[in-house]
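Lab notebook, design round three. We kept the backbone fixed and only want residue identities now. Task for the bench partner: fill in a sequence for the structure below.
Input structure tokens:
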């Protein structure tokens, strides 16, 4: 879609059938696949345009079966708009705002947004080249809810992040900024030690990196030079500032339980920053076959 904006988006998906057809194309690529038995091109479509029946196993299905839309009463049209807004707005969208836009309850909007985030949760990606690492505190209930290295009132959470310069990012909500929390994440993702360089602040947890065979340089904040040629963490500071704007300004309060999902949302937008809004909307659907999330799993204590 050229020059995607809200108006062209609305015109493209003006009713449920437009959305169903589009979802079918993205999921099955014109090869209708039975979610019950896996038969391809064995199903016929009823006249209502909604229901399919598989000739092989005789079972019925819709295009929503096996996706996060399956057990939702919300129209696909509203879902599509929610996905478009949630993936295209730089700082995200709150459930209060989304509920007003779509004419749904705030609780429903909250649930939709969490489902949309769940689909794009970060998978294990390998990191290469010049990498910046950082471990700020985030959130909290104090008046000065800023990202900071201080956690005097114990209400802040630690997020560990890495970013490849000119590449992708990952943000992980961790228990602490200790060695045992940070180093395994680096080891899991940075495996090509010879061709990777890691830059961080002077935090003690990174000291073991050299012993482990990594190239590691720390930014010396005390000697006045934040930027010392290549030794800087400016890139990841930019990533945090976006997350901070969202968590403080859009979402107001993010509970520890859900913080990882917000990290995933911001990380996803950063990692797809080369796409335009409609390309990113389509990209989101690449993941839609994989995940299914019910309200039960979302509100469960350990989900
Ligand atoms: Zn079948």
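Proposed sequence:
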């Amino acid at each position: 879609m050229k020059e995607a904006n809200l108006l062209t988006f609305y015109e493209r998906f003006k009713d449920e059938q437009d959305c169903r057809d589009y979802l079918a194309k993205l999921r099955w690529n014109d090869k209708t696949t039975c979610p019950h038995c896996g038969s391809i091109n064995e199903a016929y479509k009823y006249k209502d345009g909604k229901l399919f029946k598989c000739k092989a196993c005789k079972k019925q299905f819709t295009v929503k079966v096996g996706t996060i839309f399956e057990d939702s009463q919300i129209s696909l049209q509203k879902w599509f708009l929610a996905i478009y807004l949630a993936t295209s707005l730089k700082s995200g969208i709150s459930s209060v705002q989304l509920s007003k836009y779509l004419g749904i309850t705030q609780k429903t909007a909250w649930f939709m947004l969490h489902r949309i985030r769940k689909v794009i949760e970060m998978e294990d990606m390998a990191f290469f080249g010049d990498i910046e690492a950082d471990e700020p505190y985030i959130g909290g209930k104090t008046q000065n809810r800023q990202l900071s290295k201080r956690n005097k009132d114990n209400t802040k959470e630690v997020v560990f992040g890495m970013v490849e310069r000119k590449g992708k990012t990952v943000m992980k909500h961790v228990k602490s900024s200790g060695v045992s929390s940070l180093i395994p994440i680096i080891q899991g993702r940075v495996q090509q030690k010879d061709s990777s360089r890691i830059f961080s602040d002077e935090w003690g947890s990174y000291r073991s990196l050299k012993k482990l065979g990594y190239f590691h340089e720390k930014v010396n904040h005390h000697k006045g030079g934040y930027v010392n040629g290549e030794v800087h963490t400016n890139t990841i500071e930019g990533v945090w500032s976006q997350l901070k704007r969202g968590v403080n300004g859009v979402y107001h309060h993010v509970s520890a339980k859900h913080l990882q999902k917000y990290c995933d949302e911001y990380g996803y937008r950063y990692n797809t920053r080369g796409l335009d809004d409609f390309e990113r909307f389509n990209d989101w659907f690449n993941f839609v076959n994989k995940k299914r999330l019910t309200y039960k799993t979302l509100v469960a204590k350990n989900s």
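Keep this in mind before ordering anything: The two ends are 37 Å apart (CA to CA).
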